């Protein structure tokens, strides 16, 4: 096991942040000027500046131990209604999925079947680019039924994660990925996997079309190309400010299961997609 402790995140505004030994050591330049979701964080990012993003990441480290041995891995309530972790944990509860392949700081790729574990990991962070193993975090994931792909290196490899889920006997598996080529590789090897495209701000038009063509669910983030490409063939859109598109019947079933599960009032309305909200990330890129 490496003694290095480094974690690289593309945080609010797709800003590259480096955390070492529990400290934020580098904050890059955000690609966005504004994000309605970031303004709703527990520590809001009202201005997309390196200082505001540093403050947000430091608040996450203090509040739930992100990128440290104190990392909390369980959570209950939804952070947003149609976020990826909310949709997938709801699909587990509704019996549509057996397990989900996700990524955690301090652990890398893992297989989870506990909705609280899926929400506790995925609902609290996104855009993990690199992580190093934290034994305490890996132990906590295992205590809650999760299986880490590579505890020695905390590797991030979603294709291998789906293969691991299959060896564990799971047949209805969903997997998150931010990479179009990886999504294609997953679809080629595991035709029945439910693929969820996440963290897609800045994706090229070519890759957006590729992701829309192979994924079951696609989160638009701040991507203009995803909004345009996914909307061409999407069966359903959930949300307007940061929409999620169901590209297949499997994806549509997951969104509708979440709608059935919530007590929040909803409107279902036929429309030409994409439907734009009054507030969207800016600029779309």
Explained architecture:
The structure is a single chain. The chain has 285 residues and is of the alpha+beta class. It has 9 helices and 12 strands. The chain has an 8-stranded mixed β-sheet with strand order 7-5-4-8-9-10-12-11, sandwiched between helices. It has a 4-stranded antiparallel β-sheet with strand order 3-2-1-6, covered by helices on one side. α6 links the parallel β8 and β9. α2 crosses α9.
Low-confidence stretches: none
User: What series of H and E elements makes up the topology?
Assistant: EEEHHEEHEHEHEHEHEHEEH
Distance N to C terminus: 38 Å
- What is the tally of beta strands? 12
Q: Quote the average pLDDT.
A: 93
Query: Strand order, biggest sheet?
Result: 7-5-4-8-9-10-12-11
What oligomeric arrangement do these chains adopt? Answer: single chain
Relative helix content? 25-40%
Short account of what is shown:
The protein has 285 residues and is an alpha+beta fold. Helix content is 33%, strand content 18%.
Write the layout of secondary structure elements.
Blueprint: E1 6-11, E2 15-20, E3 23-27, H1 50-64, H2 84-93, E4 99-104, E5 108-112, H3 115-122, E6 128-130, H4 135-143, E7 147-148, H5 158-167, E8 173-177, H6 180-189, E9 194-197, H7 205-214, E10 217-219, H8 224-231, E11 236-238, E12 244-246, H9 249-261
Parallel strand pairs: 4-8, 8-9, 9-10
Antiparallel strand pairs: 1-2, 1-6, 2-3, 4-5, 5-7, 10-12, 11-12
Helix pairs in contact: 2-3, 2-9, 6-7, 7-8
Offer a few descriptive terms.
18% strand; four-stranded antiparallel β-sheet; alpha+beta; 9 helices; 12 strands; eight-stranded mixed β-sheet; 285 residues
